[in-house]
Design brief:
The complex is a heterodimer of chains A (571) and B (465). Chain A is built from 26 helices and nine strands. Chain A is mainly alpha-helical and 571 residues long. Chain A is globular and about 90 Å long. By secondary structure, chain B is α/β, with parallel strands linked by helices. Chain B has a single domain, classed as Alkaline Phosphatase, subunit A. The two termini of chain B are 43 Å apart. Classes of the chains: A mainly alpha (571), B alpha/beta (465).
Chain lengths: 571, 465
């Protein structure tokens, strides 16, 4: 395609986007065009210029003109849809370097920050596409997604049978292994016993909306759609490994004789009805109350009607896309960039709900692969701030990811909580299966879980829900945990502070500087940024002036501060 | 104890104020009965507010507006203390608490025995004048945390950003505002205002774990090193990202500023029975008991002693769509003990700056997403619980107000029809925004900046409807 319009940034596409401008020489650039874009050279004026350009270029209807984009070719639908908002505004976000991109993908897709050795093995010399494809094929990627859905479904064995949860979790796993489409999954999940056992009545409507349609149901919707789930109940059914287990049952009496109790005409005129197999028997624990495991395929076909109807809603794919965009980009890109949302919805529609295709498109897009380094002055009014899509995403690690990453650096087993079972239940036959570490007495070791909870992770899904905590208490917790972690490091630890002290008597600035850089780079796979050298030297001089500060103490404290520094905590 | 001034707060405040200005909702016109000049609210920067957030949507009517049909209150009513006009629910246990006898020489009076200290508004409504009430959790959480339909900075963040003790400094103690609890309806109370957010404490037990033995101790040179790294990270990011990173940076600075607080064993309310100023932790245990709510209330009082202008304590378990009966009785009586305990404890604590009792400087109030409805004549829905559809039962919440600042103890304002739960003719209806504006006004915060055009509720102080 030949560039016939303003070749504003056409020559600086440099592989950030999977696009080719067709512009073949820099001579096409008009004088004065800032080809580096506002984020590239620390020129905050550039951002203003771009904003001004955006105003100049906006069409009469307020939509950005996209002549630049018209002259570009794309292999990524996200890049194409976002182009009018970015390149169309004269902005060309620089690509993240290999280390930044590696950390981002590692934490997002594998749930842990990479070590030096991880970077060397999995990222160095690999293209973004190769990294994303490789990571999405790994079991950790499936697990990260299972954890995310666990938060959505509020897994909790205080209320729900552990076998139901394990089954639903396995279905999530199939989705992220490409073995099941999202549409198929939602149809089943909407009436899966793990869902039915977790909520009752109108809450079943509300939480299905939250899981699959992106918002809570309003009271009218709750009331109007509840009949689609009206047959379901629970009964106490102690299990050998879960004495508090309750079974999900279908009470056919709930709509007999009044079948209208199972009729809803809100989305369509539908009755979800399984007639009592023994007419006239009104025993609420009798033959007309059927355990969900005894239902036939034909019964399930009827009972999954609400799930099918959910998948037919216009916002069904949109809700998934919005969630994925927010998760990977850290902001509400679905609303900020509606064309991007629509492009991904179209992709999902075309593939029948292939979430892997959608996620890959996001993860290989310029929105995801751009650097988050971006110099912009402090601004008071959010309306004056540059849009987040003019730079790459920056997010705070989830509690589990931070703890696991820190533990790996210390050389400890990373630990884990079982996202399916916030608490392991037991019965006459002992505990049910789980993935918690086991203590000497055979009980689950909740140490990791309890640490993560202090920072908003490993939620119990009852009184505590996932949160990314900041502020005083989070900082205090991190201070406490890093004290323990850095003290536990051994000579085999990747971040073992004392290995970087060659001479315990050498308190020279050069020696301490070397140690600080080595500790910092063990955690972040890069040396202390040049712009932060003064901070490091302030610390070094402070230690040198402090008679109580030994090189060993300097190293240990540098380990602590690195693990809770923004450069490590954020990615 | 130390006195802490935070001269650098203005730099951070500017983000929040700007955001606030942009987010301020257009005032809706509702019950502007008296001019602002005539408002009679006991406002002082020395006052404190304690909010108990009944997470999940509490059925407040059977507790505090009990004189209604069985459908709305299946428990009946009690006479209450002399001078009580509001319907004291028979769900409450009247028996005084004997646990305090050893330490204080008397059994602590129960809530029904101090009902004449409590003023009740029976018609607090998120959306006065709207065709229906709000029955949606997410929307209701916006209202109860920020006072606005669209949501915004949580009230604990507003207090921390705008209270004069924090913005101008104080001769007294200035521990930040605090939110205790992790429930979905409680955490929004901490939604940041720019870079400013309150202290968020999951629970008393987790707080004890979090502060560790060393309370975040760190050599000054290490602190400087870390601060420099963080400041570089902030400087090299976009404006909106700077705010997120700055919250983490601010949190670290506060760890140092308030380290003396975290080293105080009095804050280990379950583990250090002899610790504590004026009231020991053992005495607080006798007063509040050992439930999570009781321990969290004890911790809340410790934060108040360290200068927190406001504390929110979340209390979960009110979203009782089914099997409500047993759970509700337990929850109601735990709440009752918290109320009774606050009355008992605050009267025995001295305000460090005025010398009056802490009781004289405190307003205690509750908040909740909504009440409950979809009830049958039995008082429950078909599952033995209650729902929230936005009908009058869930719409008009009955809220109690307690503390020495409340002059209308025992009074009831906003009566509702015994059968329909609709407000009776001529009875006032108060918005959630007015209810929250009152809390800020009590703390001497300029509410016009937050809720322009809104008259705060003042009837619990004046008795004038």
């Amino acid at each position: 395609m030949r560039n016939t319009g303003l070749p504003l940034i056409a020559t600086v596409a440099f592989g950030l986007l999977a696009c080719n401008s067709g512009a073949d020489d820099e001579a096409n650039q008009p004088t004065g065009v800032d080809t580096m874009g506002p984020g590239a050279g620390g020129d905050t004026d550039g951002a203003d210029d771009a904003a001004d350009d955006a105003g100049d270029d906006a069409g009469d209807d307020g939509a950005p003109e996209a002549s630049v984009c018209d002259d570009m070719t794309f292999t990524n639908v996200v890049d194409e849809a976002a182009c009018p908002y970015i390149q169309g505004q004269g902005v060309e976000p620089p690509k993240a370097d290999e280390v930044e991109m590696c950390r981002r993908a590692y934490i997002d897709l594998l749930g842990v920050s990479p070590l030096d050795s991880d970077y060397e093995a999995d990222c160095k010399w690999h293209t973004t596409e190769e990294i994303i494809d490789a990571f999405m094929a790994r079991p950790e990627y499936v697990l990260v997604n299972q954890r995310a859905w666990g938060d959505t479904f509020h897994y909790n064995t205080d209320i729900v049978h552990h076998e139901y949860i394990a089954d639903l979790d396995a279905l999530v796993g199939q989705v992220y292994q490409g073995l099941m489409t999202y549409d198929e999954f939602a149809e089943i999940a909407a009436t899966h016993p793990a869902f039915l056992g977790r909520w009752d009545g109108v809450d079943l409507v509300g939480f299905n909306f939250l899981a699959f349609l992106g918002r809570d149901a309003n009271p009218a919707e709750r009331e109007a759609l509840e009949p689609l789930w009206h047959l379901w109940e629970e009964r106490d059914a102690p299990h050998a490994n879960q004495s508090n287990a309750r079974a999900v049952v279908l009470n056919t009496l709930n709509c007999s004789p009044n079948q209208s109790d199972c009729n809803s005409n809100y989305w369509d005129d539908v009755t979800v009805l399984i007639p009592p197999p023994v007419p006239g028997d009104t025993n609420v624990n009798g033959p007309n109350v059927i355990d969900q495991s005894m239902l036939s395929a034909a019964d399930w076909d009827i009972l999954r009607t609400p799930g099918r109807m959910i998948t037919e809603q216009a916002v069904f794919h949109e809700a998934y896309v919005d969630r994925a965009l927010e998760r990977y980009l850290g902001y509400d890109a679905g609303s900020e960039l509606p064309e991007v949302r629509q492009a991904l919805v179209d992709l999902m529609d075309a593939t029948g709900g292939d979430v892997l295709a959608v996620e890959r498109e996001i993860l290989t897009s310029g929105l995801y692969t751009a650097t988050n380094t971006y110099e912009e002055e402090e601004k008071i009014d959010p309306a004056d701030m540059d849009p987040p899509y003019w730079r790459g995403p920056i997010k705070q690690m989830d509690a589990e990811d931070w703890l696991r990453s820190a533990a790996r650096l210390i050389g400890e087993a990373p630990g884990s909580c079982d996202h399916r079972f916030p608490t392991v239940q037991s019965g006459a036959g002992g505990m049910h299966a789980n993935t918690y570490p086991t203590m000497a007495n055979g009980q689950p070791d909740y140490t990791f879980r309890d640490r993560a909870r202090l920072l908003g992770g490993c939620p119990d899904h009852d009184s505590q829900f996932r949160a990314v905590r900041t502020g005083l208490i989070a900082a205090l917790t991190q201070a406490t945990l890093t004290t323990e972690l850095c003290a536990a490091a051994t000579e085999n630890s990747p971040i073992y502070p004392l290995q970087f002290i060659e001479d315990p008597e050498d308190k020279s600035a050069e020696s301490l500087s070397t140690a600080a850089n080595q500790i910092y780079s063990a955690a972040t796979v890069k040396p202390i940024p040049e712009g932060a050298t003064d901070a490091m030297m302030l610390g070094i001089e402070g230690c040198r002036d402090d008679l109580n500060c030994t090189p060993e103490e300097f190293a240990v404290e540098t380990c602590r501060l690195t693990l809770k520094a923004a450069d490590f905590l954020f990615y | 104890m130390s006195t802490i001034k935070q001269h650098n707060r203005r730099a951070f405040l500017k983000y929040g104020l700007a955001g606030l200005g942009a987010a301020a909702a257009a005032p809706y016109i509702w019950v502007p009965r008296i001019s602002k000049a005539a408002l009679d609210i006991p406002n002082s920067r020395h006052n404190h507010v304690i909010i108990i957030n009944l997470d999940g949507g509490c059925r407040s009517v059977p507790m505090f507006n009990g004189a209604l049909d069985t459908k709305w209150n299946p428990y009946g009513t009690l006479a209450g203390a002399p001078g009580t006009e509001w319907g004291v629910g028979a769900v409450f246990d009247e028996t005084p608490y004997p646990e305090t006898t050893t330490a204080f020489g008397m059994a602590m009076p129960s809530l029904p025995q101090i009902s004449n200290e409590i003023a009740v508004i029976g018609t607090v409504d998120h959306t006065p004048g709207a065709p229906a009430g709000e029955g949606n959790h997410e929307a209701a959480r916006n209202w109860i945390s920020s006072g606005k339909a669209e949501g915004g900075p949580g009230i604990m963040s507003l207090v921390y950003a705008m209270h004069k003790n924090y913005t101008e400094g104080s001769a007294g103690l200035v521990f930040p505002s605090v939110t205790i609890g992790t429930g979905n309806a409680t955490t929004p109370f901490s939604k940041p205002m720019g870079t400013i957010s309150p202290v968020e404490v999951p629970s008393f037990a987790e707080f004890a774990q979090q502060s560790g033995d060393d309370a975040g101790g760190q050599p000054d040179w290490a602190r400087d090193f870390e601060a420099g790294l963080d400041e570089h990270a902030i400087a090299t990011r976009g404006a909106s990202d700077k705010i997120r990173l700055a919250r983490v940076h601010n949190g670290k600075k506060n760890v140092k500023a308030f380290r003396n607080v975290f080293l105080d064993p009095a804050l280990r309310v379950a583990e250090a029975p002899t610790a504590g100023n004026e009231l020991t932790n053992a005495e607080l245990q006798a007063i509040f008991g050992t439930t999570q709510l009781g321990r969290n209330m004890a911790l809340a009082l410790r934060f108040i002693q360290y200068g927190s202008a406001a504390v929110t304590v979340g209390y979960d378990g009110w979203d009782t769509h089914s099997n409500e009966m047993g759970a509700y009785t337990t929850s109601a009586n735990e709440l009752a003990r918290a109320f009774a305990g606050l009355s008992f404890a605050l009267k025995r604590m001295t305000h460090p700056e005025t010398g009056a009792s802490m009781w004289d400087h405190t307003l205690i109030m509750v908040q909740s997403e909504f009440g409950r409805d979809n009830l049958m004549g039995s008082g429950y829905n078909s599952g033995g619980g209650s729902d929230h559809t936005g009908g009058p039962g869930s719409r008009f919440q009955a809220f109690p107000y307690l503390g020495g600042l409340v002059t209308q103890g025992g009074k009831m304002f906003g009566r509702t029809d015994a059968n329909t739960m609709e407000p009776l003719a001529g009875e006032p209806i108060y918005s959630t925004t007015q209810h929250m504006a009152m809390a800020l006004a009590v703390l001497d915060i300029n509410i016009e900046e937050v809720y322009p055009g809104i008259d705060p509720m003042n009837v619990i102080f004046t008795g004038v409807v």
